[in-house]
Amino acid sequence: MTTSVDTVAAGPPQAAGKLQRVIRNHYNGLVDLYEKLWGEHIHHGYWDPGQEGTDQHAAQLRTVSELVAFSGLRPGGRVLDAGCGVGAPAMHLAGELGCHVEGITLSDGQVVRATEKALAAGLADRTRFRQLDALATDYPDGSFDTVWALESLELMPDKKAFLTEALRVLRPGGTLAVTTWCVRDHTPDAEEAQLLRRICRDFVVPYMLPLEEYRQMCGDLGYAEARVADWSERVRWTWDVDPEVVASLTSDRQQVLELARVKGGAVLRLIHVVPLMREAYERGVLVYGALRATKPLAT
To answer: Reduced to 3 states, what is the DSSP secondary structure of residue 296?
Structure first.
């Protein structure tokens, strides 16, 4: 089952180039608002049972640490961060684990912000950020010990193309480390389908796949030791965004109109999608998945 933003538009499928422009414009326009809502780690947090809802920033760092542990990422390696955002996970990998990280994103605004942050953190010598398409990079074969994609695969118009490119740029024995938004492996009812379409539209997600389909796809492409994990129950509290923050963005009608004027209608959809994400997790139709696979050693 796939859920496509094209279905919402009720038009012909978007070409990959057009979709990439939409994604680039979305994140360029909203880079500061995303940071205001979620901080520099623009991704889900991970909480232990009983700790739900506490310290969002610590939980986001925990997500990074959990993916490091799940994937077996080794300190000091060369990492490609595909869909690097404003660079917070890349800087954690560089600062805490001594990795050398190449961060790529479609958003030139994110490249600027990430580069500034790395310089301020004293990590410019171990990080580099570029505007580059993760589906077709210019890196030589076998360039990286790890290809890391923390909540970016759902945005890609061709999941198989990304997994193929990741396999190419990994060295033999290298590791793919991914977290991504997925759908439950079932046929949704009408309300669930509409909910997922609205989420896809508002976050510029072309479609989502069931988690198990990614594991099977990796096997078909030639990866070894592909395994997946469902982290939905540990991350769903991300969407308990401080209501005062959301209220501050919506209570002043003039401010809302000004935001929409400066940043476009996407800002209004972003503000209103928060309760939809909560509902999707509560209904169990949205799955937060982790994926790990390795490139076989040369024979």
So the answer is: coil
| Burial of residue 11, with CB atoms counted within 10 A of its CB: 0-12 exposed, 13-18 middle, 19 or more buried | exposed
DSSP category for residue 43: S
Strand partners, 180: 289
d(CA 177, CA 180): 10
**Residue of 86, 161, 155, 73 whose CA lies nearest to 119:** 86
Domains of the chain, each with CATH number or no CATH: 5-294 (3.40.50.150)
**DSSP 8-state assignment for residue 229:** E
Q: Are 183 and 3 in contact (CB under 8 A)?
A: yes
pTM here is 0.81
User: Which helix (H) or strand (E) segment is 34 a member of?
Assistant: helix 16-38
Phi and psi at residue 185, to the nearest 5°: -80, 75
Tokens of 219: 């096997």
Q: Which residues contact 14 (CB under 8 A, 6 or more apart)?
A: 5, 6, 22, 157, 206
Per-residue pLDDT of the chain (299 residues; tens, 9 = 90+): 444 433 333 233 445 554 444 444 444 444 555 555 555 556 788 998 887 767 778 888 999 999 999 999 999 999 999 999 889 999 999 999 999 999 999 888 889 999 999 999 999 999 999 999 999 999 999 999 999 999 999 999 999 999 999 999 999 999 999 999 999 988 889 999 999 999 998 888 999 999 999 999 999 999 999 999 999 999 998 887 654 555 555 455 555 444 444 444 444 555 667 788 889 999 999 999 999 999 999 74
Backbone angles phi, psi at 156, to 5 degrees: -80, 135
Q: Using a CB cutoff of 8 Å and minimum separation of 24, what contacts does 16-25 make?
A: 16/135, 16/157, 16/158, 19/157, 19/204, 19/206, 20/106, 20/133, 20/157, 22/204, 23/106, 23/107, 23/155, 23/204, 24/106, 24/107, 24/108
